């Protein structure tokens, strides 16, 4: 990872990628997405690609499709199932191997929802209210009031991670406050109920070379802003979108992320898709200007994504593939989450000697 691209962060929050590579068996990945639509280049370069690398490096990998997070800022659930399908297809197309890695929908694992309750008891209102990502989302268009789920979803997300024992979380930098929250809540649970041992392991984030990609309008790439290049679009559509991207009026192309963020973001996309440094792409375009830069970006993206897009089209024709992945995922995750919940209940002394209160008698209903 090029250190020039990522601002320094408090080290404890960030996982040491070299150690993960050296000891993949010591780590477990849990990360996820809100299924509000098909995934785009920002997801791909920001985290999706890294998930596949971690899987291929031998780290056990879990991906939650966070359907409950959809209703943090909207009420309409009609598109959720179709969007979950898109998110699963995107993962399979970029290389998620469902034999090794696990994808599951949030709402299919009730144990996560139940772990949320003790975690909420270890969370303060001021923590929730000062979360900058929540604040930004709550200030989005059309939000006259903030629902309880909007305020508490970072803790719900902590429950996702802690339920399956995720220790590294590859995410974009907007998710770092949620990671801090997860770590705080895990530590507090350990202090209160751990009796000197680690009840819940505080996870670490893993940022990539592109923790925040700009969209075609120069703001953060995001489905809801309509400025995203989805992985599934055609090569022609990609060319059209890139051509419409905002740049600046300086003809000579240079890589200066602070001063020329839009140009830098395009350079970064081309660089990451062709395994080069953005400075080298800039030097190649030089005085040929933004039009040339956009042509370079379009080719880089289209060449890089061609096999992904071909695989995606093939997968989308198979009727059961998404359902099978999600069913297998729930079957793997529920026992893990039940075990975590039972461990927490034990530590809290909430055990009644009842049959079936622990993980061993647990059955999935699917
Ligand atoms: N909030 C994340 C996003 O909007 C999605 C998410 C849900 C997630 N649960 C998670 C990410 C657990 C990492 C870990 O993209």
Summarize the structure in words.
This protein has 366 residues and is mostly helical. Helices cover 50% and strands 6% of the residues. The protein contains 13 helices and 5 strands. The chain has helices at residues 17-22, 41-56, 80-94, 110-121, 125-129, 132-138, 148-163, 176-193, 235-243, 261-274, 278-285, 289-317, 321-348, and strands at 28-33, 60-65, 102-105, 168-170, 204-206. The chain has a 3-stranded parallel β-sheet with strand order 1-2-3. Strands 4-5 form a two-stranded parallel sheet. Helix 2 (41-56) links the parallel strand 1 and strand 2 (60-65). Helix 10 (261-274) crosses helix 11 and helix 10 (261-274) crosses helix 12 (289-317). It is globular and about 75 Å long. Residues 1-10 and 357-366 have low confidence and may be disordered. Tryptophan is lined by residues 30-34, 64, 66, 69, 157, 160-161, 169, 171, 175.
Main traits of this protein?
three-stranded parallel beta sheet, two-stranded parallel ribbon, 6% strand, globular, binds tryptophan
Q: Determine the mean pLDDT.
A: 92
Bound molecules: tryptophan
Strand order of the largest sheet: 1-2-3
> Over the alpha carbons, how many angstroms does the gyration radius reach?
21 Å
Identify low-pLDDT runs: 1-10, 357-366
The outline comes out as globular
Cα distance, first to last residue?
41 Å
Structural class: mainly alpha
Assembly state: single chain
Number of strands: 5
Largest β-sheet summary: 3 strands, parallel
The number of helical segments is: 13
Give the percentage of residues in beta strands: 5-15%
What is the H/E order?
HEHEHEHHHHEHEHHHHH
As a percent range, the share of helical residues equals 40-55%
């Amino acid at each position: 990872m090029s250190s020039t691209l990522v601002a320094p962060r408090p080290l404890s929050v960030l996982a040491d990628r070299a150690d993960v590579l050296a000891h993949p068996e010591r780590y477990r990945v849990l990360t996820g997405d809100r299924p509000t639509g098909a995934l785009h280049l920002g997801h791909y370069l920001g985290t999706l690609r890294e998930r596949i690398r971690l899987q291929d490096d031998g780290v056990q990998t879990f991906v939650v499709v966070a359907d409950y997070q959809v209703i943090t800022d909207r009420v309409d659930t009609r598109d959720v199932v179709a969007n979950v399908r898109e998110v699963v297809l995107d993962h399979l197309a970029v290389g998620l191997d469902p034999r090794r890695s696990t994808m599951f929908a949030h709402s299919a694992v009730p144990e996560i929802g139940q772990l949320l309750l003790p975690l909420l008891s270890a969370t303060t209102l001021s923590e929730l209210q000062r979360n900058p990502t929540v604040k930004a989302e709550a200030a989005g268009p059309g939000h006259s009031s903030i629902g309880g789920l909007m305020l508490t979803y970072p803790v719900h997300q902590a429950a996702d991670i802690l339920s399956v024992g995720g220790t590294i979380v590859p995410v974009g930098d907007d998710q770092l406050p949620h990671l801090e929250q997860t770590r705080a809540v895990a530590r507090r649970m350990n202090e209160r109920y751990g009796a000197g041992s680690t009840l819940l392991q505080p996870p670490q984030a893993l940022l990539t070379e592109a923790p925040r990609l700009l969209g075609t309008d120069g703001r953060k790439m995001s489905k809801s802003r309509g400025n995203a290049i989805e992985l599934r679009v055609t090569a022609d559509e990609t060319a059209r979108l890139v051509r419409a991207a905002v740049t600046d009026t300086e003809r000579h192309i240079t890589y200066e992320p602070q001063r020329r963020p839009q140009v830098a973001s395009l350079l970064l996309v081309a660089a990451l898709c062709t395994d080069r440094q953005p400075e080298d792409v800039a030097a190649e375009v030089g005085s040929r200007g933004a039009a040339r830069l956009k042509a370079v970006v379009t080719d880089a993206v289209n060449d890089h994504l061609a096999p992904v897009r071909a695989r995606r089209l093939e997968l989308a024709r198979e009727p059961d593939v998404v359902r099978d992945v999600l069913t297998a995922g729930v079957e793997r995750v529920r026992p893990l989450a039940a075990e975590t919940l039972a461990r927490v209940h034990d530590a809290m002394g909430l055990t009644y000697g009842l049959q079936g209160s622990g993980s061993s008698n647990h059955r999935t209903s699917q």
